[in-house]
Design a protein that fits this description.
39% helix, 7 strands, three-stranded antiparallel beta sheet, four-stranded antiparallel beta sheet, single chain, 132 residues, alpha+beta
Length: 132
């Protein structure tokens, strides 16, 4: 019985590792496509989903598992922290980017800590609103 449990745990771990590898490959492929279109990532936020910044072209890119969104700085009308109500501590681990002139009205990225989200907010506000 113990061997079966060990085997089951091993199989589950292998499946999880394969899914992580597959998702990383897809994300890398999307970033390669984005760069082939001329996007030059100056900064990469370790967010979920991943956000890239191209300061020279005044653009942001949000990388989802199956697609990416390109956003011009001029489309951003607000950047604010938001509570993650699904997190046990309900901390401000979300960064909401409000948009105009785009099919999406907002984009939300998640950080590991509230402190990280504050840094991203300050960085993006400085880049987006000081470049105009």
């Amino acid at each position: 019985m113990r061997n079966n449990k060990t085997l089951l745990i091993l199989v589950v771990l292998i499946i999880i590792a394969a899914l992580v590898f597959y998702n990383k490959q897809r994300t890398d492929h999307l970033i390669d496509r984005l760069q082939a279109e001329g996007f030059r990532a100056d900064q990469r936020l370790a967010s979920d989903p991943i956000m890239l910044v191209d300061a020279s072209q005044q653009q942001l890119a949000v990388i989802y598992p199956d697609r990416y969104l390109r956003l011009g700085f001029q489309q951003v009308i607000g950047i604010e922290r938001a509570l993650d109500v699904n997190h046990k501590d309900q901390e401000e681990r979300l960064l909401q980017i409000n948009l105009q002139g785009h099919k999406e009205k907002q984009v939300v990225i998640e950080g590991a800590t509230p402190e990280q989200v504050v840094k991203w907010q300050q960085l993006l506000q400085q880049l987006v609103f000081n470049e105009r």
